[in-house]
């Protein structure tokens, strides 16, 4: 998937958790084999070329395409699984894969799990007694500094995803033009229960721009967000303060 995944796993029976971790890593490699748009032999590449139908692909392909269609519907087209006219579900695959990995480890008995996929994080459980998971949000204007710290206190599952230009440049596409999105934003961080969705919502909101993006994010259930503009203006949803710490 063109990025690095890291795991922080706490508690559980060691052998069971170790086996689950190995299975989770193997599944991430399998996801890359199936969904990579850079591999000529991936099922997505073959699907684009017409060599396979969705029904002939692994069941996960249909699942991811359905999720992408739902994200496109909810965002009124600001999130898309197409790039330059071709099918490209990579915008939703990473969050979906990391979320599945975290849930797999939790099901194996881990009491606390953090899966980080390229800076986007799925959290489950707790890292220790009376200790919540905490995630730092990088400040796009001050390298090495934090714009905020998100706390998972009081919830069993939380995800944090950021879309922006600080790390990878202008890579977010405006689906209406097919060109890099031109907005007043430098970064959008979205917080919610599932990384599958908050990753997609961060991408869509960035493409919308700060005003429309914030209004839209405010309308979504169980979602909070932090938006930072190129003018160093910080905007956030009404309930974000409850997640800071």
Structure described in brief:
The protein has about 240 residues and is α+β, with helices and mostly antiparallel strands. The protein contains 6 helices and 13 strands. Helix content is about 35%, strand content about 25%.
Describe this structure in words.
By secondary structure, this protein is of the alpha+beta class. The protein is 35% helix and 25% strand. The strands form four sheets. It has a seven-stranded antiparallel sheet. Strands 2-3 form a two-stranded antiparallel ribbon. The chain has a two-stranded antiparallel sheet with strand order 6-7. Strand 6 (134-138) and strand 7 (146-151) form a beta hairpin. Helix 1 (14-35) packs antiparallel against helix 4 (90-107), helix 4 packs antiparallel against helix 5 and helix 5 packs antiparallel against helix 6. The radius of gyration is 18 Å and the shape is flat. The two termini are 31 Å apart. The relative contact order is 0.13. The mean pLDDT is 94.
Number of helices: 6
The helix-and-strand class reads: alpha+beta
SSE order: EHHHEEHEEEEEEEEHHEE
Rg, rounded, reads 18 Å
Poorly predicted sequence stretches spanning 5 or more consecutive residues: none
Q: What does the overall shape look like?
A: flat
């Amino acid at each position: 998937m063109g990025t690095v995944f890291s795991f922080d796993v706490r508690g559980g029976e060691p052998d069971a958790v170790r086996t689950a971790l190995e299975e989770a890593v193997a599944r991430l490699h399998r996801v890359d084999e199936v969904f990579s748009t850079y591999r000529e032999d991936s099922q997505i590449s073959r699907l684009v070329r017409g060599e396979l139908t969705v029904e002939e692909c692994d069941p996960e392909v249909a699942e991811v395409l359905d999720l992408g269609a739902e994200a496109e519907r909810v965002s009124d087209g600001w999130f898309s699984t197409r790039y330059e006219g071709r099918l490209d579900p990579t915008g939703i695959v990473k969050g979906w894969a990391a979320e599945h990995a975290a849930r797999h480890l939790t099901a194996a008995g881990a009491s606390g799990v953090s899966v980080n996929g390229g800076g986007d994080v799925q959290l489950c459980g707790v890292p220790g007694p009376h200790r919540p998971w905490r995630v730092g949000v990088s400040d796009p204007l001050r390298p090495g500094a934090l714009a905020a710290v998100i706390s998972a206190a009081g919830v069993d599952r939380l995800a944090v995803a950021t879309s922006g230009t600080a790390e990878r440049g202008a890579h977010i596409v405006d689906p209406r033009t097919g060109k890099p999105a031109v907005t007043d934003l430098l970064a959008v961080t979205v917080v919610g229960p599932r990384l599958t969705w908050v990753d997609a919502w961060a991408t869509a909101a960035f493409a919308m721009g700060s005003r429309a993006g914030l209004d839209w994010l405010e309308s979504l259930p169980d979602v909070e967000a932090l938006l930072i503009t190129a003018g160093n203006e910080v905007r956030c949803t009404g309930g974000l303060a409850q997640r800071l710490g």
